TrEMBL record:
This is tRNA (guanine-N(1)-)-methyltransferase. Homodimer. One of its GO terms (biological process) is tRNA N1-guanine methylation. Specifically methylates guanosine-37 in various tRNAs. The keyword Nucleus does not apply. One of its GO terms (molecular function) is tRNA (guanine(37)-N1)-methyltransferase activity. S-adenosyl-L-methionine binds at I142, G143, D144, Y145, V146, L147. Residues 263-282 are annotated as: Disordered. It catalyses: guanosine(37) in tRNA + S-adenosyl-L-methionine = N(1)-methylguanosine(37) in tRNA + S-adenosyl-L-homocysteine + H(+). It comes from Microbispora catharanthi. The keyword rRNA-binding does not apply.
Length: 282
């Protein structure tokens, strides 16, 4: 896969030289090209931003610079591949569609991705309007919090996509086991993991994991995954395919909900208790 990244901070992407992504690049599985956006400016100050129309705080990235940069990078990539290929353009923004494991799997199928991480208040909206007519263009967000720019989001996405490329993970670990991968453990968080020694500072490894009983171990792991998901991400359990739950799963869920109800009623009978607003009738 070819990945182009245009940014005013290409040095931000040094982490992609390291570890799994570094190995993928050495092996030629991941071909990353970094570009300095300011190379496409024409003024002595290498200006990439200007004040927003309509007023307001902050600055907006100028469309002409991005246009020249994206055109040039597309031309370069086409010359390199000797074809008429076009990249998928990905623009991180807090107002984008959520980047999920599903999107990562989709991007991992692409031969060529072009990331356009911005700074300031973002890029003049006409840039996405223009390339939206010429390329498959996505405005994506990596989560509901506010970053200072798109670079960290690109690092996240390149790592999530890169590890899915054939040959990047060893056979030892399959992407099929991931929390958000489709299949057996779909929509379940991964449960706890342990290694040697069997007792550390008085904390014991759950006995079932030492039993060598593969069936019981698989069942225990699923139960733990289900309990953890109920505790931390109940909305994921609500989404679980009803048919994907067996009788044992339903028992684990019932027991968890009983515990929750016990705790709720114990809290309600303590002095000073105030119901949450959603539990009070209007
Ligand atoms: C992405 C960015 C900014 C406008 C701009 C460019 N999940 C996410 N949070 N924040 C970003 C993101 C993603 N993906 C993000 C690109 C840019 C933030 N900024 C700063 C902050 C607030 N409003 C500029």
């Amino acid at each position: 896969m070819r990945v182009d990244i245009i940014s005013i901070f290409p040095e931000y992407f040094a982490p992609l030289d390291v570890s799994l992504m570094g190995k993928a690049r050495e092996r030629g599985i991941l071909d990353i090209h970094l570009h300095q956006l300011r190379d496409w400016t024409h003024d002595v100050h290498k200006t990439v931003d200007d004040t927003p129309y309509g007023g307001g705080p902050g600055m907006v990235m100028k469309p002409e610079v991005w246009g020249e940069a994206v055109d040039a990078v597309i031309e370069d990539g086409r010359a390199a591949s000797g074809g008429d290929a076009l990249p998928r353009l990905i623009v991180p923004t807090p107002s984008g569609r959520p980047f999920t494991q599903e999107v990562a799997l989709e991007y991992a199928e692409e031969p060529w991705l072009l990331f356009a991480p911005a700074r300031y208040e973002g890029i003049d909206s006409r840039v996405v309007a223009e390339y939206g007519e010429r390329l498959r263009t996505d405005e994506v967000s990596i989560g509901d919090y506010v970053l200072a720019g798109g670079e960290a989001a690109v690092l996240v996405m390149v790592e999530a996509v890169g590890r899915l490329l054939p040959g990047v993970l060893g056979n030892a670990r399959s992407v099929a086991d991931d929390s958000f991968a489709p299949g057996d453990m779909a929509n379940l968080l991964e449960g706890p993991v342990y290694t040697k020694p069997p007792v550390w500072r008085g904390h014991e490894v759950p006995e079932v994991l030492l039993s060598g009983h593969h069936g019981r171990i698989a069942r225990w792991r699923r139960d733990e995954a289900l309990r953890r998901t109920l505790d931390r991400r109940p909305e994921l359990v609500a989404r679980l395919d009803r048919d994907g739950l067996d009788k044992h799963d339903r028992r684990v869920i019932e027991e968890f909900e009983e515990r929750l109800e016990e705790r709720r009623s114990a809290a309600a009978s303590r002095p000073g208790f105030r119901a949450a607003p959603e539990d009070v009738a209007d």
